Amino acid sequence: MNLYRTAAVVTLFSAAEHCLGFLYRILLSRTIGSEGLGVYQAAYTVFAVFLTISASGLPVTLSRVISRHRARGNVLREQSAVTGAVLISLAISAPVTLLLFVLRTPFSSVFADPRCADLFYLLLAGLAPTSVYSVIRGSFWGRKRFFAYSFIELLEEMIRIGVGVCLLLFVTANIYGANLAAAAVLVSYFCSFAIALVWFFCTGGKFRSPRGELRPLLASALPVTAMRTSSSLLSSLISVLFPLRMQAAGYTAARAMSEYGVVYGMVMPVMAIPCAFIGSIALVLVPELSEAFYRGRREQVSQLTARALNATLLISCALIPFYLVCGGDVGIMLYSNAQSGQMLSACALLLLPMSLTMISSSLLNSLGCERHTLGIFLAGSAAMLACTLFLPRYLGGGALLAGMACDACITTLLSLLLLRKKTGVLRAGGTLLRLFAALLPVTVLGALLHGALLRCLAFLPALALTMLAMLAGEAAMLSAFRLLDLKALFRRFFGKKRKKIAA
After folding, report:
1. Contact (Cβ atoms closer than 8 angstroms) between residue 34 and residue 341
2. What is the pLDDT of residue 204?
3. Alpha-carbon dihedral sign for residues 251, 261, 408, 440
4. Which stretches of 171-272 are DSSP H helices?
5. DSSP 424
6. Is 250 left (phi over 0), alpha (psi -120 to 50) or beta?
7. How far is CA 420 from CA 124, 282, 294, 311, 401, in A?
8. Would you call 430 helix, strand, or coil by DSSP?
C-alpha cells in the first residue's frame, strides 16, 4: 500500500505541474499570439532533440545503477556512478552547445523563420545545466527521494511561469514576445539546476572518482537515448509524411493538416490521461524493482511486477467505459470538434495496450533490458510507419490511429513476453478477465442511460449525470468483483480524522 500512497503523492505533484503548464500555455497564446506560439514551439522542438541526446537515457540508467549499488551496500560506487553520469552529460552537452554556436550561421538555415533561430540559441544556453539537472534528478530517483524528484520539477515550472508572466506583462522594450518566453525557460533551467545541486549536497550526496562507472553507464544509457531520440525523429517524420500521403490520396493540403491536427492535437492529449497515473507508479516502482532484482529476490520481483501490471490494468480499464460512452461528447465539449470525439470513442480500447506498453517498458529498463526495449520500440515504430505510408488512401486520418494501435499492440506483446521470461509467470490474466466482467455491464448501462438523458436534458447536464452514474456503477462493480476495496480506502482517508475528533 506504501507504493500506491507514494505514487499518489507523485501524481499530485505531476498533476499540479501539468495544470500550471496548461494555464501558462493559455497566457502565452493570448500575449504572444498563435504566430508567436508557433515560433516558440518550432524552436523548442528542435532544442528538445539535443536535450534528448544529452541526457534522456542517463536518469533512468543512473537510478537502476544506484539501486544495484544500494542493494550491495556499496555507497562509494553509488557516488562514483552519479559523478560519471554528470561527466557524461557534460561531455555531450557542452561540446554540442559550443559547436552549434560556432556553426550558428549555417545551422540557422534549418529554420524556415529566422525568429526561430534566435529563440533556439537562447534556449541552447541552458542545455548543459538542464542536462546535469536531469542527472541529479535521476540520483534522487535511485535513492527513492521522490519528494525532491517531484517538488523541484514543480518548482521549475513555477519559476518558469512566474518569470514569464513578469517579462511578458512588465517588459516594455521592443522585444519579441516569444523571446521573452524563451528567456523565462532559460532562467528556470539555471534555477532548477542550482536548487537540485544544493539539495543533492544537503542530503548527503557527494562526487567521487567515476573510475569503473563510465563505460557501464554509457553502455546502458545509449539504447534508452537512441530509443527516445528515434521517437522524437519518428514523430517529426510522420508530421511530414502523413500530409504528403493524404495529398497523394486526393485530399487537399488543408484537409490533410486538419486530420493530423485532430489526431495529435486533440485526440492524443486525452488518450494520454492515464499516463500521468501510470508514470507515477513506474517512477516509484523502478528503484524498488531494481533493488530486488539485484538482490536476487525473484519472488519479490514477480510480486512487484504483478502489482504494477494490475494497477495499470485497473487504471486503463476503468477509463475505457467513459471513453466509449462519453468520448463523442468530450470531443465537442473540449474542442467543439465532433470528429475528435468520434475518434476518442473509436480508439477507447487502445488505452489498454498503450498503458501496458508504458509500464512494461519502464519495468524492463529497471531490469537492465535497455537493448531489448530498443529493439521492441523499433519493431512497433516500423508498423506505425507502414500504416502512415499505405493506409491514408483507405482510412484518412484513421491511418494514424491504426498505426498507433499496431505499434502499441506489437510493443505490448513483445514487452510482456520478455517480462515473463525475466520475472516468471505474469499474474495479471485473471485480473483482466474480472475487469472486463465488471465493466462491461457498466458500459452497456451507461450507453443506454446517456441516450435516454439526451432526449430530455441539455448536452452538459446529460453528460455530467451519465458520468456520475457510470462512476457509481464502476465503484459498485469493482468492489463486488474484489478489484477495489472501498472500505479500506475509506478507512485510510477518513479513519485518522475520526480518531482525532474522538480524541
Report:
1. no
2. 87
3. negative
4. 177-202, 214-248, 253-261, 268-271
5. S
6. left
7. 42, 17, 17, 17, 28
8. helix
In sign, the C-alpha dihedral spanning 131, 137, 141, 146 is: negative
- Mean pLDDT per block of 10 residues along the chain (503 residues) reads 67 80 73 71 79 83 84 86 92 93 87 80 93 92 86 91 87 73 91 94 90 85 81 76 86 78 76 79 79 82 86 92 91 80 90 92 83 89 92 88 93 92 80 92 94 89 93 92 74 51 44
The neighbour count for residue 152, using CB atoms within 10 Å, is 21
The SS3 call for residue 336 is: coil
Give Cβ neighbours of residue 358 (< 8 Å, ≥ 6 apart): 275, 278, 279, 282, 312
**Exposed, middle or buried, 402 (CB in 10 Å: 0-12/13-18/19+)?**
buried
Torsional class of 111: left (φ above 0), alpha (ψ -120 to 50), beta (otherwise):
beta
**Residues 6 or more apart from 5 whose CB is under 8 A from it?**
none
Cell of 388: 502512415
Contact 356, 415 (CB under 8 A): yes
Q: Which residue has the cell 505541474?
A: 17
Taking residue 325's Cβ as centre, other Cβ atoms within 10 Å add up to 26
In 3D space, the residue among 194, 197, 217, 193 whose CA is nearest the CA of residue 88 turns out to be 217
Is the Cα torsion angle 35, 330, 13, 170 positive or negative in sign? Answer: positive
How far is 160 from 187, CA to CA, in rounded Å? 7
- Contacts of residues 474-481 at CB distance under 8 Å and 24 or more positions apart, as own/partner, are 474/318, 474/321, 474/438, 474/439, 474/442, 477/438, 477/439, 477/441, 477/442, 478/314, 478/318, 478/438, 478/439, 480/438, 481/434, 481/435, 481/437, 481/438
CB 364 within 8 A of CB 356: no
Q: Is the dihedral of CA 302, 369, 366, 413 positive or negative?
A: negative
Cell of 368: 537492465
Candidates 77, 372, 94; CA nearest to 217 is 77
Q: What is the DSSP string of 298-332?
A: HHHHHHHHHHHHHHHHHHHHHHHHHHHHHHHHHHH
- 366 closest CA partner among 53, 52, 55, 63: 63
Q: Which residues of 12-32 are buried (b: 16+ CB within 10 A; e: fewer)?
A: ebbeebeeeeeebeeebeebb
306, three cell numbers: 504483478
